[in-house]
Structure prediction request, 814 residues.
Amino acid sequence: MAIFDGIRVIDFGTGLAPSLATMLLGDNGADVIKVEPPGGDPLRATPAWRMWNRGKRSVVLDIWSDEGRAAAVELMGSADVVLQNWRVGAAEANRVDYAAVAGMFPRLVYATVTAMGPVGPYASLPCEGAVVEARGGGCMDLSSWMERSQPSYRTRPNASYATANLAVQGIASALLVRQADGLGQHVETSLYQGYLAYDFLGALRRQSELKLMDPVIPPAASRLKAHPLIPYLAVRCRDGQWMQITNQTDRTFRRWMTVLDLDFIWDDARWSGARFVFPDQEAKEGLAKLILERMATKTFDDWMTIFLAEGLAGDRFLTTQQALDHPQVRHNGSVVELSDPELGPTLQLGMMASFSVSPGRVKGPAAGIDQHSGALAPDAGDAEATGAPAAGRAPAGPDRGPLAGLTVLEFASWLAGPYGTSLLADLGARVIKVESPTGDDGRWSLGGRTRTFQGKESLVIDLKRPEGQEVVAKLLGRADGLMHNMRGDAAARLGVDYESARRHNPEIVYLYAGSYGSSGPGAGRVAFHPTMGALSGGVLRQIGRGNEPPAADVELDGDELYAASLALGHCNEASPDITGALAVATAMTMGFLHRARTGKGQYIESTMLASNLYLCSEDAIRYEGQAPLAELDGDLRGLGPLDRLYATGSGWLLVSCHTQAEWELLCDVVGRPDLVGQERFADAAARCRFGDQLIAELSVALGARTADEWEGLCLAAGVGGVRADAMNGDDFFLTHPQVAENGFIVEVGHPGVGTYHRSNCGVRFSRTPGVANAAHQFGQDGAAILGELGYDDETVAQWVKAGVVVLPEEGSGA
Prediction:
C-alpha cells in the first residue's frame, strides 16, 4: 500500500506551500479534498496550479458563513488530517481552529501554516513567501551574496518549498504517534521557519561578533570578496556553452588543474594556496581568468568526456523547462505525462522520492471547481495496517519528539544528506553520525557547530577495518533507519549498502541521498550544490532579463568572459543542498510512518536533481499554449508591478499582492483608489500588459513615505507590504522580537562544544514537541555507543591506540 493510503486530508490552504504539501500527500496515497472559496482558488490561473492540485477532489465552501462553517466542521470530522494557512486569528474567530474542534475529533491531526508565527508584531502578515523572506532579511542576504548594495528579489521560492516539506514531516510524524496511541494533535510551522531552514550556518559568525556564544569563533582568515569562487566557477566552452564547475574537494581541484595543464600554479606564490587562500583579490581573479581561458579551448562535450573519465564535476546551465528533458530526469521518472481535461497533454513533475515497497503515483489531473460537491463519502478513516507494526520503538511523549525511540544511522558527509538527518534529530530521533577517522569534510567549519551536526551523536570508527565492520553489523541490527550519500560501490565496500543492511535488519528504513541517482547516465558522478542550481533552472531564472550570458556565437574578450562568469556565480546560492536535505527528511519520516502501519522497511532514494526541480515547480509543467512564467527584471526588483521591490522616501518596500481584493486594498493604502477603476489596470491580465505604467504610478505614490511608514499601513490593512532592507537575516534571527516571541531561537550547549544559539525545531507539536540540541564533538559519543554494544573499556582503549576508533582528547570537555 502507498504510505498515506486510507488517510483523508482536508486542504483549506492556498499558495505554493500548502498546495505542494498536499500534493506530496496525495501522490503518496492520501485522499485530498481541496476546499476552495466561492469562485475557486484565486491562484487557479497560475500554470503550475494544475500540477500542485493534481489528484485532489474539489469542493467549494464559504467557510466564513454559518452554513459553510458547519460544512467545514463536518468535513473535518471525516478527516485524518486538516491543513490550513488562514490569517492568524481567522480560524479562532470562526471557531474552526484546533482548540475548537479537537474535543470533537480527538484523532485529528490539524496542521497550521502561518507567515511568521501565531504571535508577535508580524503575526498578521499574509502567508506569502516573498513577504516573509523580505522581512526576515532574505533580500539583503541575497544582495550580500551577489555583492549588491540594494536589496534583491529572490525568484526561488525557498521559504514555500521548505515549509511544504516541514508540514509533511510534521503530519507524517504526528500520524506515526497516532498509530501508537490513537490521538491526533496540533502541528504548526511557518514560512519563516521554512526560510530559516536555509541558514545552515545558523548565524554563527554573527553570534561570535555579538559575543552571543562561548567560545567565540576565530575571525575568518580571508578578508577577500567571496567571488569568484574558484572551485565553483561558471566557465564558457569553445562552442559557447556554459558549464558549472564544482571541483570542491582537494583531490578533484588538483586533478582539474592537471587536466588544464595548470600544475605550475602550486609553485607560484600567488596561487599556491588555491583553491581557497590567495594573497589578494587580484591573484584570485587572475587565476579565475586563467582557468576561463583554458576551459574555452574545448567544446562542452569534449570537456564532459574528460570530466567523466577523470572523476571531475561539472554540468551545463539549463532552464527548468530544459531540465524536464534531461536524460537523468527522464531515467529517474522525475517527470510524468498526464492528460489534463483543461490543458490537454502535459509533462510535469513525478515523485520527489522513490519508495521500493510503497511507491507513489500521480492519481489524476486537478479537478474542476466544486467538481465533487455532494459526492464525498461521510467517513474515510485510515486504512488498517497490512502487517505487524515494527517493534522496539519507545512511545513518544512530552519533550521527546514524535520520532522518539527511533535510531537513525548516518553515513554521509557535506550538507545535502547530513542536514536531513539533523531535521530527524529535531523530531526526536536518536541520530548517530558515523564518521571516518578523517571526519566529515564539513566537520571543521565553524567549530563543528553548523546545522548538519546539531542534535547528533558522533561515532568515529574506521569501517575499512574488521573491527569497524563488526561494530556496524551490531548497529544495523538495532537501527530503525539508515541514510548515506556515498557514490558508486562505496557503501557496499563498507558493508552499509541496502542488501547488507536488510540482512541484519529486514525492517530498516534505508535512504540513499543521491545527487543524480544510483543508476542512469549520471550515476556515480560527483556533484555539489552549484551543479543542481545550474541544472534545475534556478540560476537562469535568478539572473534577470537582459543579464543572461551572451549567445553562443558572440565572441567575448577576457574581461567580458570574466564578467559573465561572475554574473552566473552570483545567481547560484548554496540553497540546492538544503533543498535536497529537506527532501531527505520528508522521505524518511514517510518511510517510518509506512513501517509503523505495515511493519515493513524499504529502500528509498532521493536526489538533489529531483528536489531542486520541486523547488522550481512553478515552471516544472509543460503543455501547449502555456503562458510564459513572469521574468525577473534586469535590476532584480521583481516579477511584475505587484510582486516587486520599490524605493520609498527612505528604504525599500516589498509589495506582494496576487488577488483582485489585495490589489484594491493596496490602492486604498497608497492613496490611489482611482487606479482600480482604470481600464488599463482592470484585471490581472491588464495589469501585466501595462506593468511598466503601473510600476511608474506606484513608484511615485510610494515615494511619499518611508518604508517603515508604508509597512505599518500595510500591516493594518492586511496588505502584503514590508520593509525589505531593515536588517539582514542573521540580525533578524538573533535580535528581532518576532523570533523570540515565537520561540524560533533557542540557546543550546554541550560539553566541549560550549553554548550558542540555533533555530528551534521547524515544526511545533502540541503533544510531542521536538527537541533542538547542540552539536557534539568529533567522536564524543564513541565510548558510550561502543559500551552499549557490549565492548568494555579495555577493548575500546586498544582500538583507540590502533587507530580504529577516535575519541576526543582528555580535558576537551567530553
About this structure: DSSP finds 32 helices and 27 strands in the chain. The CA atoms of residues 98 and 110 lie 6 Å apart.
